[in-house]
Amino acid sequence: MTQTRPVIQRFESSTGARIYRIPMDVFPGFIGYAYLLLGAGVPTLVDTGSGYQTSTDDLLSGLSSLADEYGEAFQPSDIERVIITHGHVDHFGGLGYIMDAIGSAQIGIHPLDRRILTNYDERVLIATKNLTIYLQEAGVPQDALPELLQMYSFSKMHVRSMPVDFTLEEGDEVDGMQIYHVPGHCSGQIAIRLGDVLLSADHILSRTAPHLAAESITHYTGVGHYLEALDKMRRVEGIRLVLGGHEDPVTDMHKRIDELETRIHQKKQRVIDILAKSSDPMTIFQITQVMYPEKHGFNHLLALQQAGAYVEYLYDRGYLCIANLDDVRLSDNPPLYYGLI
């Protein structure tokens, strides 16, 4: 479903930072946000969109409009610092184009996502190899693999490696910004607190739970890390407003965390219910067909990753077993069939 383009919005934190939320079409019909921070040290841009089609134009035109629309004595070349909240292409894919436009700025990211910027080709190659192994273990038919892998790599072809000038880790404080490491959706995802405002990236969204993938594809993703990061943010007090990388502002962070946690547990139970109703053990591919029957194309690939994240979580914690151990003994990388213990 195509989203209606939001307008630029201005927010202010209890620390006096001015926060401008700038919408971009990061993919056709899919809106993402970058944030310009003024009054929190040097002018800082948080995330850069996908670099895909109009995304960069949306961001640059939004930044350029702030002088006329809000009376800010600002132009894009004033940006001195760029923070990437996590290494997904809709948040960092436009970085090279933005740096070309603004000149020079210091670039920062969490260490676990640093390689995505500094050695992008290696990152894509290794991730594609891990994904191939995962999809084979998931039981994806051999003739369907090339199309799924091509869809995975397509949106990443325009990205180039960029230098990283500094890293941001759990507990860091920079010009009044407090950093939280919130993995699960992405290994190195961070949330940024400015007084009573939290920039949550994709960790806490207003309408949907973020996409999760099996940790066997990429370390520090998955259901377990996501739940731990939710619990961490539940213990944070004094947040009036949560601004995510997509969707609407959240005005009750703790209530939304409870809702997200409930949804995660419902999906875990859904996997258990699917296996309980099956007369035979099932692969992740088969579980995905039942769990997400309406998903096709690239969304089917995401569904395969997500269903696998829940299977992995349940298997690691002893709820599931692998039913075809003889195949595992005799073959290099056979499809894995899961059953309930």
Characterize the structure shown:
This protein has a domain at 9-128 and 153-263: 4-Layer Sandwich (Metallo-beta-lactamase, Chain A). It is 38% helix and 18% strand. The chain has helices spanning 55-64, 66-70, 89-92, 95-102, 114-118, 120-137, 145-154, 223-234, 253-277, 284-291, 298-316, 325-330; strands at residues 9-12, 18-27, 30-38, 44-46, 81-83, 106-109, 166-167, 173-174, 177-181, 190-194, 197-201, 241-244, 320-322, 338-340. With 341 residues, the protein is of the alpha/beta class.
Q: Span between N and C termini?
A: 40 Å
For the residues shown, what is the average pLDDT?
Answer: 95
Which overall shape is indicated by the principal axes computed on the Cα atoms? Answer: globular
- According to CATH, what is the class of the domain at 9-128 and 153-263? Alpha Beta
Beta content = 15-25%
CATH architecture of the domain at 9-128 and 153-263: 4-Layer Sandwich
By CATH, the topology of the domain at 9-128 and 153-263 is Metallo-beta-lactamase, Chain A
The fourth-level CATH homologous superfamily of the domain at 9-128 and 153-263 is: Ribonuclease Z/Hydroxyacylglutathione hydrolase-like
Notable traits:
341 residues; alpha/beta; Metallo-beta-lactamase, Chain A; seven-stranded mixed β-sheet; five-stranded mixed β-sheet; 12 helices; 14 strands; globular
Task: Give me a quick take on this structure.
The protein is α/β, with parallel strands linked by helices. The chain has helices at 55-64, 66-70, 89-92, 95-102, 114-118, 120-137, 145-154, 223-234, 253-277, 284-291, 298-316, 325-330; strands at residues 9-12, 18-27, 30-38, 44-46, 81-83, 106-109, 166-167, 173-174, 177-181, 190-194, 197-201, 241-244, 320-322, 338-340. The protein has a domain at 9-128 and 153-263: 4-Layer Sandwich (Metallo-beta-lactamase, Chain A), CATH 3.60.15.10.
